[in-house]
Amino acid sequence: MEKTKLQVFIKPSQLSRRIKQLAADINHDYRNKIPIFIGVLNGAFIFMSDLIREIDVKCEVDFLKLSSYGDSKISSGEVKTIKELNCDVKGRDVIIVEDIIDSGLSMKYMLSQIKKHKPKSVRLAALLHKKDVAKIDFKIDYLGFAIDNKFVVGYGLDFAQRYRNLKGIYVL
Ligand code: IMP
Ligand code: MG
To answer: Is the distance from the beta carbon of residue 68 to the nearest atom of ligand 1 less than 6 Å?
Structure first.
């Protein structure tokens, strides 16, 4: 794959170190609970798989899929559910796993959808947050890295569906 236009942003070693720390926090907070991790497809699939393997409390996993961006770098502001949940989250402790919070619109929509199913609790784990883009009105309980407003790819994150397979995170 052509990597010439890509600039290293977060190395695989930094990702794995940080993810171990997030998992340690989750393991501590959810001891004696059985959380359901809900990953947001497609972007969160690699973060989810690495995070979940550091979790040592009993847990379940599901995914849902939203769409908003098409193949553009700028959010269309319109969010839809493409794949619904398969699990019943009523009365359960839910941890949403997302790759990146940019405008926060996708997560706002996602939280409203999940809360309709009356979970006992909902927390959010996000690998990245573009901290200067927008003021978000929800809390990111487990955040990997707060980053500047740059378009990043790799480690699950794409541009026009490409680059998800890269082991690190790069600025495009
Ligand atoms: P938001 O609704 O603006 O917060 O956008 C969130 C979604 O847009 C994320 O789940 C990503 O799928 C995508 N996204 C936002 N910023 C980037 C980026 O820098 N690289 C790749 N995808 C991004
Ligand atoms: Mg996403």
So the answer is: yes
